[in-house]
Amino acid sequence: MRNTASFLIVVGFLILWEISARIIDKAFILPSPLQIFIRLWELKEVLFLDHLPITLLSIVMGLTLSIILGTAIAVWMSLNSSVQRAIYPILIASQMVPVIALAPIFVLWFGYTIWSKVAVAVLITFFPITVNTFDGLSSGNKDNEELFLTMGATKKDIFFKYSIPMALPHFFSGLKVAVTLSVIGAAIGEWLGAQAGLGYFSRRMMTQFDGAAVFAPIIVLTFVGILLFICVTHLEKRMLNWRTKS
């Protein structure tokens, strides 16, 4: 029932968009969904063979580094309260600076290489992973931990057999947010400084006043984000199947 409602909302939105675009009749400003999908089909080889792999590489590299960096910082903060008090405010402050303002700086530092896009993706995605993982590691019951200690468990045992399983649902919650943000981060990085990629292609088409071609890469990026979210959700169900069995 919910899927049917979502489908009807999307269809209704597309119909309204199509009608509005035909009334305005300025495709370089507001192309219709039909025009966009026709242009997407015409540009499929350029988008999917030339630009999509570069954007996917930026997304995967950014997510990988964010997972490594975010979980490492979260574990460090959970094990040391002094580190938590020192680093947590810095994490918050890092999200106060607009990414759109830092992206040109990354281009200045790394040039028009993939690393400027990866840096933007990391900056945007590591925060939800770090915060959610830290919350998960800190969500354990102290009484349970003391019980484990009295039963002969070491702190290492408690961390790997109690804290980590408790943190995994929180980690996946952060990861589901991060995968969608990684697409945005890669696109922003390519939009502001790149020689290839879907974001770069969209910006290039804007200079040619090809409205449908500007939207076409955005449609591809949207489906990439949805697919990544579905993959993470599937992985979460596979790794956390013990929650449904208990």
From TrEMBL:
Major site of localization recorded for this protein: membrane
Keywords: Cell membrane, Membrane, Transmembrane, Transmembrane helix, Transport
GO biological process: transmembrane transport
Subcellular location as annotated: Cell membrane
Residue runs in coiled coils: none
Domain ABC transmembrane type-1: start-end pairs: 52-232
Segments passing through the bilayer: 54-79, 86-108, 114-134, 171-192, 212-235
Membrane topology: Multi-pass membrane protein
GO cellular component: plasma membrane
Claim: Transmembrane is one of the keywords in the record: yes
Family: Belongs to the binding-protein-dependent transport system permease family.
Protein name: Bicarbonate transport system permease protein CmpB
Organism of provenance: Sporosarcina pasteurii (Bacillus pasteurii)
